[in-house]
Amino acid sequence: MPPCPGYGRNEAAPRPDGTAVAPYRAANAVGCGGSERVTTPTIEVDDLGRDFGGFRAVDGLSFAVPAGTVFGFLGPNGSGKTTTIRLLLGLLEPSRGRATVFGHDSRLGADEIRRRSGALLEHPGLYERLTAEENLDFFGRAWRLSERERLERGQELLRHLGLWERRRERVGAWSRGQRQKLAIARVLLHRPELIFLDEPTAGLDPVASASLRHDIAALAGREGRTVFLTTHNLAEAEQLCGLVGVIRRGRLLALGHPDELRARAGGPRAEIVARGLDAAMLARVRDRPEVATAELRDGRLLLDLRAGADVAAIVALLVGGGAAVEEVRRGAATLEEAFLGLMKETR
């Protein structure tokens, strides 16, 4: 829903110690005359914390999200993800630290933050007795869009999300996936610069999930918006996100590009499918300097390799030893493996 007038002042505030928030220097960004362009991140969090009685839900978070990024905020249930979103939107006040969004302190500028944001949290926020058109018209009026803006933007979103032919149907009769798509349209209706999506594909079947992921990526890419995404689907985060943060028990465990987090879980890997593999051949492979670990499993040779490893040399070794190599696959640790590794480290 739109912000209520008079919630708070919109000016940004300094840190409690009086220092200014450091600007974000965009990677590979240059301004006029070739100088580096300095920009402020859409979101900046500095030692943010929130307590509920004796329970610490968010504990000393510090991170920044550059404009135009799809940011994945990953963690198990109860780790503080939704609480963090509510802090960023100014729906909760921090117990300590500071959060700024668009340069506005969340305690002082919540009105402006919410005006420029869209959020899909636990519930779709739709009226089931209204049609899709009526829902978008209602929310467009709430955002004070003109009649022309409501009609044009509503048609644009409904067509893009594949809902145009069902625009005059009551939403209560729709599937969960269709309602979730309409909820995304509601969130994007007023062209927010920042979009919060809390588990947007939870409970959807695989086809609906894949379709919604495509829509999120297309809309974010086409309109250049910043997306703050929480999800338990690690493959989803790997596909969508340019920056990922991992949180557990309110604390940030890791922050970086998915490739960086995968690299922490181990180096390159290879899987070789072959006939004629035996223990002697496995021992020779393990003696190779580029091989960190090697394991035989159901006719497959599973290798953890060191940086710069030459898989062709290993294949030649196997063929020279009499093995019949049928297939070679190269890869790296998945984001899910990196995430589970972080969870084990912090038990």
Key terms:
347 residues; Rossmann fold; Alpha-Beta Plaits; 6-stranded mixed β-sheet; 4-stranded antiparallel β-sheet; 29% strand; globular; disordered N terminus
Verbal overview:
By secondary structure, the chain is α/β, with parallel strands linked by helices. It folds into two domains: 41-256, Rossmann fold, CATH 3.40.50; 266-332, Alpha-Beta Plaits. 33% of the residues lie in helices and 29% in strands. It has helices spanning 81-88, 110-115, 132-142, 147-160, 176-188, 206-223, 234-240, 258-264, 279-286, 311-320, 335-345; strands spanning 24-30, 36-39, 43-52, 55-65, 70-74, 96-101, 104-105, 117-120, 194-198, 226-230, 243-248, 251-256, 269-275, 291-297, 300-305, 324-331. The protein has a six-stranded mixed beta sheet, sandwiched between helices. The chain is globular and about 75 Å long. Mean pLDDT is 84; it is low at 1-38.
CATH class (first level) name of the largest domain: Alpha Beta
CATH names the topology of the largest domain as Rossmann fold
Report the C-alpha radius of gyration, rounded. Answer: 25 Å
Helix content: 25-40%
Major pleated sheet: 6 strands, mixed
Q: What's the overall average pLDDT, rounded?
A: 84
At CATH level 2, the architecture of the largest domain is: 3-Layer(aba) Sandwich
Uncertain segments: 1-38
Structural class: alpha/beta
CATH superfamily of the largest domain: P-loop containing nucleotide triphosphate hydrolases
Extended strand count: 16
The count of domains is 2
What general form does the structure show?
globular
Counted by DSSP, the helix tally is: 11
> Strand share of the residues?
25-35%
N- and C-termini, Cα separation: 39 Å
Family: Belongs to the ABC transporter superfamily.
Keywords: ATP-binding, Nucleotide-binding, Transport
Protein name: ABC transporter domain-containing protein
Organism: uncultured Thermomicrobiales bacterium
